[in-house]
Amino acid sequence: MWHILGCIMYADDLLLLSASATGLQRLLDMCDEFGVFNDLAYTHKKSVCIKIEPHCNRPIEPMSLGKVCLDWVNSFKYLDILFNSGST
Fold it and tell me: What is the Cα–Cα distance from 60 to 36, expressed in whole angstroms?
């Protein structure tokens, strides 16, 4: 039996994990709905997307958190851990 971990949370930091762009957008939509319902705001300038896979040069779909489009990056830090897409 497989179990999929869709997010990692520490204090007010959240890392969403998905095997597909469609799945990632669903997670972002759930976060947005939760935020609206609970009157929570996200720091959009700290919210980014990264694609880690062998074919990183394929076109990627735009992702949004609410009405804000998120940037795609090649690396980012989460809790002082550097994540890198593997592309240069």
Answer: 27
